[in-house]
Amino acid sequence: MSEISRATGETDITVSIDLDGGGRTVAESGVPFFDHMLDAFGRHGLFDLTVRASGDLDVDAHHTVEDVGIVLGQAIAGALGERVGIRRFGSASIPMDEALVLAAVDISGRGQLHYAVDLPIEIIGTFDTTLAKEFLCALATNAGLTLHVRSLAGENSHHIIEAAFKAVARALREAVELDPRVQGVPSTKGTL
Fold it and tell me: 144, 107 in Cβ contact below 8 A?
């Protein structure tokens, strides 16, 4: 369990996450589609997740979405602690109607995103679809994840992004699980 708060001149965000939860999610960012994606992330990762964010939405949603990614990444890193006994790696291929998205994660300590997702439209409701990548980049960087996300099929941007959030959640769920066969930190270096 970890809770992180961060306030800047653009946003004020508090995130709490229990990686061993049951999927109970509260998402209040002021960006309805993004809240829907955060709900999918928590539910499909089986994370108990609370996100409360306010930001300069009069400008646009960029700062809010990116900063939620930063704070959520920091909260995940905090909840992982020493990373002792975790599986470390996880992957998931998630279909949503015509869309199919693959996510693979390594809790490597080296935050990076490799993203190849084709989105046919730029706006879903009030959500700029380029913000999905911004969120995932901030999440991976601040959680110390090597994260790959690839769309393999899809025509509907809502379906593609939702499949991506669910795939990342399921991959991360697998990676953070404790494996009774793993002794110590799963790394030849002895640290992640």
Answer: yes
**Residue-level pLDDT, tens digit, the chain, 192 residues:** 999 999 999 999 999 999 999 999 999 999 999 999 999 999 999 999 999 999 999 999 999 999 999 999 999 999 999 999 999 999 999 999 999 999 999 999 999 999 999 999 999 999 999 999 999 999 999 999 999 999 999 999 999 999 999 999 999 999 999 999 998 888 878 778
Q: Which of 146, 9, 18, 13 is nearest to 76 (CA)?
A: 18
Domains in the chain (CATH in brackets) are 2-176 (3.30.230.40)
Residues β-bridged to residue 173: none
Task: Report CA 61 to chain centroid distance, whole Å.
Answer: 17
